[in-house]
Amino acid sequence: MKLIIVIFVFFCSLLLFSKAAGSLNLKKLNIISFVFYNMIIFSYIGASCVFLGFRDHYLIAKIRDDFIVLKTYLIIAYTMIMFPLFIILWNRVFVGKKVSCIYDDFLKQRTVCNRNENLAYIATIIATVIGISATAYVFHCIGMIPILHMNMSTNEMAALRININRGFTGNVYIKNLVMILLTPLLSYFTYIYFRVTHKKKWGFIFIINLFLSIIIKTYDFQKSPIIYYFFNYYMIEVMLGNKNILKIFCLIGSLGAVLIYVQYTFVAGYEGKLFTIRSGPGGRIFMTQIATLFLHVQAFPKEVPYLNGASLPTKLARLIGSSNSWVRSGREVMKLYNPSGIKAGTAGVMNTLFVGEAYANWGIWGLMVAPFIVAVTFSLSFLTILKFKKTPLTLVLYLALFQSFTGGLQGGFVDFLYNAGVFLIIGIAYSFYILLNRGKIGMKRPLKLRRRNL
Question: Mind listing the pLDDT tens digit for each residue in 274-317?
Fold first, then answer.
């Protein structure tokens, strides 16, 4: 009976996501269809295994009640179905057209570079210099270039990662917004210009930003940021309509697999089995991420009181009457289930699917509303970008929203209620647009879409 439920939920989600995204075809991968694959890989497979009786994982072993397993699986199933359903209903009311048609029109458009290409190039050089300066400043504050110290033990890396993220003594805005956020986006921007114009000057500035971005994405020894960084080049090729897109997907996938293998085998010295969901990279991908959702459900409210909005930024928390702010649920769960790691400085947070933080703050009401809020955020971002003329700037803006929102899927719900990085990206992109168009404020829409809307 349980297996039938698991299969039924999967196919319901598959059909709904296919309609919500317009297509689940990897050749036409978009921000909505990516959510489906993300939830399936990082949440549903692991949750289904636990629901069906799998318990041989160090975090799953901490679950003390079968009711927690049932409750958490139902939360996952609800999210897998309601997320795409909310998008479908939203699009039907406010869009009135098939998403697949709008998306196909966008993919067929030719990417147009701005007429003021020299101005764009000069602005890019200035931005690159700022990025180099910000990176040098951050590494000076850290006291090292982490990628040159990959021979550390796993515990040493974990302690240093916590120290870099939580004990950073420099300006956090320079680190988080200029170095981590904007500089990699600059590499995407220069890559698109190079792909479209085939000019060596854009290729040269791209190589500089590519090298800089690789250093940045490995600054705290995490493995996933560098993999996602290269994956975004696949998304660029999708947007550009590359006919060899599946070959690129296989190339990036193989590169990711090699990086994971090297990290586990030669860097971390891992001696266990790699191809299992009990441990190693398989356990990390399929089980660890979703296991923390089970622990969220077990912890709140019996062992830790509901946060009641304490995860929100300070100003928003005060508006709803909370005396605390920025209390992330993942940190509270880590304190509960790994106090020794917290004390030793080697443990950070137990992040999980966004509904985990919604539940930790507002209980059942939070997790019921969360899929709707997140779904609308994704839908608005996706459809808004599709209405604009396809240029390097709009593609980079789409990528920025893509990585910010999809990164939040396994991060925290409050990132969808308030995200300073997203506001900054939109502001900079719009300012850059005004600069390149010599003061023109309105953003152009493609002629094909405007005619259809007449």
Answer: 667 777 778 888 898 899 999 999 999 999 999 999 999 888 89
**Residue 151, burial from CB neighbour count under 10 angstroms (0-12, 13-18, 19+):** exposed
Which of the four pLDDT bands, split at 50, 70 and 90, describes residue 448? very low
End-to-end CA distance of the chain: 52
User: Phi then psi for 152, rounded to 5 degrees?
Assistant: -70, 160
Q: Would you call 410 exposed, middle or buried from its count of C-beta atoms within 10 A (0-12, 13-18, 19+)?
A: buried
Structure tokens at 336: 């509960």
Which residue stretches of 218-310 are H helix? Answer: 224-240, 245-262, 280-283, 289-299
Has residue 194 been placed in a domain?
no
Q: Does residue 422 fall inside a structural domain? A: no
> What pLDDT band is residue 154 in, cutting at 50, 70 and 90?
low
Owning domain of residue 356: 2-108+272-370
Q: How many domains does the chain have?
A: 1
Give the residue from 266, 236, 232, 280 showing the smallest Cα distance to 252. Answer: 232
Residue 160 has pLDDT above 80, yes or no: no
Who has greater pLDDT, 320 or 337? 337
